[in-house]
Amino acid sequence: MKNKIQLSSCSQSAMHISVKEALQQYTDSLEHQGMNWMQWMAECEGARELFAQQINANVNEIAILSSVSHAASAIATSIKPNGRRNKVVITDFDFPTIGHVWRSAEDEFEISFLRQNESGFNTLKDYETALSDDLLLFSTSHVNYYNGYKQNLKEISSCVHKKGGYLFVDAYQSFGQTPIDVKDMEIDFLAAGMQKYGLGIPGIAFLYVNEKIANELTPKITGWFGQVNPFAFDVRGKEYADGARRFDSGTFAMINGYAAHAALKILNGLDMKLVEKHLEVLSDVAKQEIQKTGLESRSQFQLTEKGSTTAVFFTNASEVEQSLAKEGIILSARNDVIRIAPHYYNTEEDVKTAIQALAKQLK
Ligand SMILES: Cc1ncc(COP(=O)(O)O)c(C=O)c1O
């Protein structure tokens, strides 16, 4: 985007030229070829493959869905209580959609919410104390959407597994800005979409299901793409595909697949450790700059416990977002905070300029 400072990756990252071209390629295929199923499918499968690589999974451990809500619903409707093990614990970190999904299944599971402390985080000790031996599944976010708090997934998965439960990770706010290795972190389920730090657009999301678990689950939200052979055209049949592919359902959102494939080529070409380092530097710049103003940060964490997002308190956050957009500074409001969310392409100067503009809004 020319002549603007885009710092809204917690909501929508800047559009890369190759994503724009990919969107154009899809519309060109409609206009000039009418139909090109082979290519459309190849783009979506290419995106699946690159997403798998990005999180160190096998391609058969990834389902292509439409949103993170869809991914959470896919698990909530396929997992079963196991004897007395029926407790599903959600954190207050979780994006509201996760609560809505699991509460819709409260006739089947005992659902409880784990409160976050006043500074907006939980410690491992909190989890060790709160999770009991009848835990079925623990859901939490890798990076918090509101304040950017980043959790240590390896420690959390070890704690959850000691209690005998599964770990579901909502990685929508971390995917694309920090390394994720589902094998090393021993994650059971992970969902992420492309719109935020993923450099893509909404309408497509991926669900990772560990291969050791996937075939034990029978999806209820399903369809022909989740079958062993979608092209068997056997209306009476029901034979789920192997692995996470059983969670695919209907025709993929093709244009979103094009965008996701292009975005993932860019992401996978970056060194995610360097991206994370760069964003830590920008977080530090944001912290120093905020201290020079009367702004109130809601992201007072150690840099290693923080994703890119720095949240600043404003009672009229939405108005402030609109006002700064008029100055060409794109930030993202949520509730009572404005989020400054740089990506690998942002500079220290971008962050300073945004914070100085925010400080003027206090007057
Ligand atoms: C952490 C997190 N999870 C889930 C969602 C919602 O995702 P979707 O709209 O794809 O269901 C958001 C949206 O902001 C989010 O930040």
UniProtKB/TrEMBL annotation:
Residues 29-351 form the Aminotransferase class V domain. GO terms for molecular function: transaminase activity. It comes from the Bacteria. Coiled coil: none annotated. Keywords: Aminotransferase, Transferase. This is Aminotransferase class V-fold PLP-dependent enzyme. It comes from Paenisporosarcina quisquiliarum.
